[in-house]
């Protein structure tokens, strides 16, 4: 087991390096220069603007070739320094740490809501295959999966406004007012969970249909076990293995949706921080946020791989 974990961790290193390389190169090949943006936002005269621009480029190592810039960034990254914002000089790690609770809370609510609903809907749809209930659920899940997150989020704001309801515009911490915090997060979390629920429920249905046709399920029914026992102890446990893998693969979509939802509902999470950094072309903040998202995806996939042994005893024995 230790060898397997070590191998997975070693395989994650080139993946993260590839993410760093792609983002590092992408933010520097766009036409706009961050030095020009900083000079345009200052009140410097024309004569001193060029000197100010040169000092900025030198400080950010933008006057050097890309391989050297990458070398500086990797050295600092190994030291645990992911850089400072070019605008307020605050450490990027501090910015992410301040915004992280918002993103984690919304992600936890979204995953919980989508998983519970997807399992319940998927199992019932599989048990009532090709019935009116099954057709209605499949139509609903197709709509939930196909509808764009930004469109659903916009409707969640515009339609209730016709009846005088408007979502809170200022963030309220859970520790300050738990009830107000949950009221603020329930709608964006439900919007984000809707898309994930649509895809996961279809996966649960397909996996359950395959498991319910196995011989050991028929044997369990022949022994006189109740349907609830057969579904929960035998079918659902074995059928959840591919669903767990699918959930891990959908994490990237969840993180991408959080960027949009946080911007729509004015939530100060890592997604909003990333959008603001892209708008201002703050290299270090963009790299830090994308690196954070990449680490989360790699870590979740690792945990999913390790959890297979706890779900399926055959994998533990092998």
Short description:
The chain is mainly alpha-helical and 318 residues long.
Describe this structure in words.
The structure is a single chain. This protein is mainly alpha-helical and 318 residues long. It has two domains: 2-78, no CATH class; 92-317, MetI-like (MetI-like fold, Orthogonal Bundle), CATH 1.10.3720.10. 79% of the residues lie in helices and 0% in strands. The protein is built from 14 helices and no strands. It has helices at 2-29, 34-40, 46-59, 66-78, 92-127, 132-146, 149-161, 178-212, 215-222, 227-249, 251-264, 270-280, 283-311, 313-317. α1 (2-29) packs antiparallel against α13, α5 runs antiparallel to α6 (132-146) and α12 (270-280) runs antiparallel to α13. The radius of gyration is 24 Å and the shape is globular. The termini are close together.
